[in-house]
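Appendix B. Raw example, untouched.
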Amino acid sequence: MFRLSRIRGKVAYATKAEHDFKRPEDFDPRDYSSRADWQFGDEVGVAEIEISSRIAWHAERHFGHFGTVRHADDGAIVLSTPYGSGRQLASWVMGLGEHARVLAPDELVEEVRERVALVAERHAEGVELAPPVPPATAEEQAEHEAAAAAASNGSSRRDTAIRPERFARLVTLASILIDAGRAGIKLDMAELRERLQLTEQELREDVNVLNVVNFGGGSYVLYAEILDDGTIDVDPEPYSDNFARPARLLPVEAKALVAAIDLIGDHLPEGALTSAREKIVAALGEDPMEQGLQVATSTGDDSGVARVVSKAILERRVLRLDYYKANEDEYSQRLVEPYALINGREGWYIASYDPAREDVRHFRLDRVRHAEVTDETFSARAELDAAADVEGWPSTGEVPASRTARVWISPERARWSREDRAVAQELTDGSLIVEVNYAGEDWLVREVLKEAGDAAILEPDDARAAVLEAVARLQAGVLN
């Protein structure tokens, strides 16, 4: 399995053939795509995890499908789940704090106990730091750059050919310009850029390309001129009917659209994309999901909540939320004006306006215990941009913070922390010191506990003390 964020450079087909390989009969990718982190690798046993009634609904909704669930009379549940990595399962259990404990097997119980003790030791006695890695000399840096250039084998050179995605864009632009020319209207350059999601430079280059495309004998596709007033004037001469028609989807594009619909469809009003999906499948002549194309998610089922939220967004109705604040381990009741569902690094969020706090608030969908559409309507606030944060913290994971912690990461976990954290210093034993921005101490403590002993806060001191308090609660409660 390959993580998309680790792929560098272009991704391309190996050949131009329709198929390069056949899937082995004994290989089913669905066996791998629906696993929890602790289920990768060979199975070593089946764990039993008791989860308190306080968050039982959350655990069952989002992790119940990784095993089987038994319900207790007091509202708690016991999750039986196969596992291949004790460390990863311990990480999940410790991240739930005092609300979860391992019942079996004995070796996993002991591993969690040892890892909790390791967290306590590294925060009470401190970590003996290895010397820092000395900075590279100019000669070493030059050798590194030369090796990187050789490894690229010239792949960094800019492509001169028109790639397929740009060709599709040019065809779309041509049809828009042709329609404007025939209608005798000028196009607003800013509006066209927004419509096609292009920069000014990209739009100018695309217009220049179309201006020189011809079929011989002086038969040009079109001629368009970008004027000083920010408009585009198109010569109203006859053009090729082929380019005037709407662009058609390639089979691979149609399959990608079906996959996208199936991936996000549960987070839209029921039936919103049903008609579009049916038309695409009819054009293809087959349903790609029945021919081997598979879309799998490892998250829980939030579709019911998502559709309630989508209904409130469409009807401009106030939404009542029963919301679990994991960092503070408390529930709150909120009445909010929902504007959008946005997908971020850690899941889906409801972008909303909270009248009680007179500000924009985002709520993680997986922490909504219950959502209800009220009869109260609201008018869209013109000053509110629900999508303003989409490219910010939902994608990067960097939330607005008031404090920064320096955290030591063990050599065993360093390679993964490099991908998610800002590295402040590399040490000679392979460990790292990273900087973690945080707004709430409770959140930071949970992040450290989820590292299962492979992380220790160096500073600030009060955050170290908070970790020790959390560990004490674990040792006095669920570990006894």
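End of appendix B.
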